[in-house]
Amino acid sequence: MKYNKLNGWTIVLLIISIGAIRAHKSEDETTTVERSSKKNVYALIMIDVQYCFINGSLALSNGPAGQDGAEVIPVINELIKKVPFDVFAYSLDWHPANHISFFENLESRKDYVLGGDHEKYQMFDAVTYTGPGLETTQILWPAHCIQDTDEAKLHEDLIRLPAGDNVVYINKGRNPNIDSYSAFLDNDKIEKTPLDNELKARNVTHVFVTGLALDYCVGSTAIDAINFGYKTYVIEDACRGVDGTAIEAKLNQLEQDGVEIVNSHQVEQIINSLNSKQNVIDTCTSNKRYDITDENQDDININNCQ
Question: Which one of 15, 87, 104, 279 is most buried, counting C-beta atoms within 10 A?
């Protein structure tokens, strides 16, 4: 009787253990399927393709690199027309007339200049303001992209899709006391623009960044995109910049931070390849035969499911 009683309890415990193992395995499989079968959603982000940076008060052609900002327009238009993006996002520099970045406003902000000697600063110098609000360091640019002026408009040759379910327009740099190079955040990383929320509301997973200027607003946007969890690409031939040395330094920084630098002719192939891998992942995980956790591995194929 003692042996039979012990054996009975052993069987009960064994059944409970098997049930727990199966439940845990089922939970793991469900998690794997949910994680791996997430649909890729691709966004094209177009940064500040505005008159002010093309032939206006802060035209890139007047900068050290002498680059022509208008050259990005046909490249971006081809991407819009030919590549199967799910979401399109346009950003615009959109400054009030009293913006902190304007050299012309240095005199009116002289009481906030660190050290007090505001007269020593020239256009394109970096100055530290102690207020109002938070201390911030700012490059002194000529007044540009002032709200509701013709210069602040997107260039007429750029394809401007109507705002809608898959098209987003973001105005940045609206706070007079802080600049915003990135289309995601102000320069002090305190206040977000609506861009991240708009992309996440549309389930965007991958972003391709283009526009002006690569060494400032494009680069800052791409770095923030990585930090917000997007797989991020910069399309180099769809960007132009201010300073050649700064452009090279920014490209190196972007690559170190995990941004992929690509050319426009590669983009459609990249998306098609990612979609093919995703189809295999979906096939595998729907049958719960294979756990693929790295979408970038090159050997994903249907044979992995067998």
Answer: 87
